[in-house]
Amino acid sequence: MSGPCSGFRWPRTCFLLIFLFLVVNAILYLRVSLFTSVAPRPPPHNTSLLVGVSTLLFPTPRPQPHDSHRPETSTLTTHAEPQSPLHNPLLRPLLRPPASYQVCAGRQVELVICVPVSRNNAQGRAVIRETWGSPGLLKATHLPDNTRPVLNNTESLLNHTRPVFNNTEFLLNHTRPVLLLFFLGQGQPWESPQAQEQIRAEQEEFGDIVEGNYVDSYQNLTLKSLSIVQWAATFCNGSRYILKADDDMYVNVPLLLAALRNTSTHNPPTPFIRGFAITGAAPIREKSSKWYTPVERFKDKSYPRYASGTAYVMSTSAAVAIRDVASSVPFFWLEDIYITGLCARRAGVELINDIRFTYDKRKATGREFVHNISGHRYSLQEIRTIHGELSKLNSPTNL
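The structure assignment produced for this chain is given below.
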């Protein structure tokens, strides 16, 4: 037998080779361990700083259908303390609307209807303008057959002698008008340029779109709700009330305004939020649940009392108070709990329960809404059906 480990030199040579082999492996192991322990984790998205920030705040789940009154899939990691998005300068200002800065200028606004909606839901925006949001149209030409107004001029709907639907006559003749605005985020990196052009054309036609400086995604719903609060508190702080309603809602706007007027007893008015109040909801700690919220993200055994995010109305003074404290409230991924629970509690805003709001789906009939303010989960056709039937019930011939 021949080789380095044969003969009388076998022990010294073999031990030397074994020693060198162990030393080389030890060095390689230490280098790999050191690299993996100190190398920064690459950002989940590299397309832009803004996308990276939004992804850091809302990193995980793909968009899922949701009810904003329930806990949703946790979108927060557990390796860093949460912060309010208002702390991050890349998310400031939240808003960069072209013309929407001025929609309240020179107007005595009673109610601003704010609808968070996805960028690609142009049809949903059209149906809301046609139906329950029509009292707030910024531009309108009345059509006798109650079809969607064709907006060919800037004349306010308030100057028309005939309302779009009969039960809004007292609103249209009121000195404090109603405004309708849709809140969108920025497009995803893969969105086609034509999509932004279509939104720009829609804004030119209707003048009711506000684009926030955040990526438009399911994960960024809290940013979208914050943009509503910030816009109202900054650019329409002379208004009285702010309604936030999802795009699959039906809202009886005349009944809502009547309720607000009848119960406005405080002088000066106390900042308030009014909606379907939820008390005692607890975070789900089971990791297998889609509603999982780790203790690191919310340590208390129950959430603060809050209003279902499907639809709620707040005094504009409440929006100002919430805006002013939001930067000091640790961020939480459930938008209704964050805005109407955590921020409202910090700001001392009163939460009023009103069972005429609901997160459930009422029957899709006009009669169901004669004495109710909101219902949830309606198709576009159901929204049209409710609105048409309710308009007939509220017409002068049926009163």
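Interim note for the steering committee: The two ends are 114 Å apart (CA to CA). The beta strands are 111-116, 178-186, 209-215, 241-245, 250-251, 272-278, 306-315, 350-353, 374-375.
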